[in-house]
């Protein structure tokens, strides 16, 4: 088994449990203990796991990420949204992911999709993103092609913004785009906290054949600082916490609302 395949297999083992031991890797992947330890060290350097004595845990970079990435009270809802979004993405698609916790959840689901890990002479998925944490998260998946925009890094969100980011996005064509937001109002549409992020999010959505706002129900009715001007808000993936009245108001304005079913833990 080649090293990229081993790294994928180790991440798959972590996806099944919160921890893995060197002995588990030795037995299941038929490698030496030294090889298993080197692979774990490599993944730890990529911040895809945390090394422990004798193995590793998937409880990884939450302490290094902005506060909104840790202790997320809506995590279960965002996982459900992520699975619903993943179900829309066929093998071979070109997708855009902005930053944010829900987009990061989508990346996590895609990273464990077995059909995307099957050997292929061409990318099984192409991801265009302005979020460096998402690019890092998917970097060890050899079948997934990653394109990162340029730009100025926002330390609050790990997103690249500014004219370099927009210049790159103007040169790509996406099949799907998934855009996270800080607020979502039926009247003024999606909003975020930063005007630079809003501009990149809007352009990402406009470059896609199909664009989806991904927002848990706690964001509905909230208005943040910056609107996504130029983007016609047509699709929303949210959780079953949305009220009947809220859904009807979105649909009356032409928005297709997709309810993500809960995901078993």
Automatic annotation (TrEMBL):
InterPro entries xref list: Carb_Metab_HTH_regulators (IPR050313), DeoR-like_C (IPR014036), DeoR_HTH (IPR001034), NagB/RpiA_transferase-like (IPR037171), Tscrpt_reg_HTH_DeoR_CS (IPR018356), WH-like_DNA-bd_sf (IPR036388), WH_DNA-bd_sf (IPR036390)
Ranges of residues in domain HTH deoR-type: 3-58
GO molecular function: DNA binding; DNA-binding transcription factor activity
Keywords: DNA-binding, Transcription, Transcription regulation
Matching Gene3D superfamilies: 3.40.50.1360, Winged helix-like DNA-binding domain superfamily/Winged helix DNA-binding domain
Pfam (any one): DeoRC
SUPFAM superfamilies for the chain: NagB/RpiA/CoA transferase-like, Winged helix' DNA-binding domain
TM annotation in the entry: none
Official protein name in the record: DeoR family transcriptional regulator
